[in-house]
Amino acid sequence: MVFDSNISISVRCNKCGKSIIEDMSFFQMKNGKQVCIKCECGEVAAKVKSRDFKTFHVLIPCLICGKDHKFIYTWKSLPSEKVKILSCPSSFCDIAFIGGQEPIRNLTAKREKDMQELIEALSNM
User: So which domain of life are we looking at (predicted)?
Assistant: First the structure.
């Protein structure tokens, strides 16, 4: 079985609101090393860590409710062609996407386009 060791995460900075897409490898987390995803403004937008190479933990400071949310996944649960949507448990709003590199980029671009169209529609009311 071929194992894709790369995943991408798309998250919005909870300080400035900028959309961030970061690629990371399973091997970046060897020996329990934590990967910090930082925005250009300097804010940490997410932290990803694997202790046992079977599961990984994603910690995201929520743009919506202000709390930190922790998500736990297995590497096998993220096939490279799929996307997991991470939602705020308080508001049920999508706060991040994690999965294969191409699907993450496609979904993020679509969401950005949808958001821009919504803003334009609301400004024309």
Answer: Bacteria
Residue 77 structure tokens: 């649960």
| Phi, then psi, of 39 in degrees rounded to 5 | -80, 165
pTM: 0.84
Rounded CA separation 75/79 (Å)? 8
Residues paired with 87 in a beta bridge: 94
Q: Please give the pLDDT value at position 4.
A: 61
Cα gap 21→107, rounded to integer Å? 11
Give dist(CA 57, CA 70) in Å, integer.
Answer: 7
- Say whether 40 sits in a helix, a strand or coil: coil
Please report, for the chain, the start and end positions of each structural domain, with discontinuous segments joined by +: 7-123
Pairing of strands 34-38, 44-49: antiparallel
The residue assigned the tokens 């400035």 is: 16
Which value, to the nearest 10 degrees, does the dihedral of the CA atoms of residues 38, 43, 48, 49 take?
A: 110
Asked whether the predicted pLDDT for residue 2 surpasses 60, the reply is no
Helix ranges (H only) for the chain are 101-123
